[in-house]
Design brief:
mainly alpha; Helix Hairpins
Length: 256
């Protein structure tokens, strides 16, 4: 990486990069790692982990050039963090329950933020959730933090009721033809659906990704059937497409 960044003999593209320009690539590579895992392609996983590691190396090289930190300090930092957050593994601490362990973990993270001068003015229990996370992940993390501090339904049944309540409010906003209110209520509905997923121990990001893939697979089946009939999608009646959809569910399997 240092050779690629050499001001005289390095690569022009690499020399133009900075932290901001590289940020999207780090996110993209992380998603490609997740995709390889989902496909159970372990050889591709090895390659994608290398691509993700490159992003760590690249950012570390930029920081080293600016006298900020280097790769060794990055590795040392995460090692120290793992050690300090796991005193029950690297020390003599004993936790009697998962709840006790989680509380100690949260306190350790808060102590780290204070020591690093982060969020010293923001004492909210929600501090520390990155605002640029995908919306579903951000929502889940926020709700997790609130739940850890007692703001949560003790059981799942009221969450089902809340989903139905929010759905009805979406309909009321739509009937009132208030688009801003519709958007607000749809947001509330999505938030409580994420909460329901959390109570059901379902990862909402994974669940939606799987649902999207299932939809795409069934829609591809519809396209194949329409093409076989020598017609175009736009030329088909909705009832005909719905029939193909039901057929796709039977042929491909409802749970596939």
């Amino acid at each position: 990486m240092a050779q690629l960044r050499h001001p005289e003999t390095g690569c022009p593209w690499d020399l133009k990069q900075d932290f901001s320009s590289l940020a999207p690539y780090a996110i993209e590579e992380a998603y490609e790692v997740a995709d390889a895992i989902e496909r159970n392609d372990l050889e591709d996983l090895r390659l994608e982990l290398g691509d993700l590691l490159l992003q760590v190396v690249f950012h570390s090289q930029l920081a080293q050039e600016q006298g900020l930190f280097d790769f060794e300090q990055v590795a040392a930092g995460i090692s120290e963090k793992l050690t300090s957050r796991h005193p029950h593994v690297f020390g003599d601490t004993v936790y009697n329950s998962d709840e006790e362990r989680q509380k100690a973990w949260d306190l350790a993270k808060e102590k780290e933020r204070i020591e690093q001068g982060k969020n010293t003015e923001n004492t909210s229990v929600l501090a520390g959730v990155a605002s640029n996370l995908p919306a579903l992940i951000e929502c889940e993390k926020i709700q997790d933090k609130a739940a850890h501090h007692g703001f949560d339904w003790p059981e799942v049944e009221p969450v089902f009721d809340k989903v139905m309540e929010e759905l009805e409010e979406v309909k009321e906003a739509w009937e009132a033809q208030d688009q801003d209110h519709v958007q607000e209520e749809v947001g509330d509905l999505l938030l409580v659906v994420v909460n329901l997923a959390r109570h059901l121990k379902v990862n909402p990001e994974v669940a939606l990704k799987q649902a999207s893939k299932k939809f795409s697979k069934r829609f591809n089946y519809i396209e194949q059937q329409v093409e076989a009939s020598e017609k175009a999608l736009r030329d088909c009646e909705l009832a005909e497409l719905d029939a193909f959809w039901d057929e796709a569910k039977r042929v491909l399997g409802v749970k596939k």
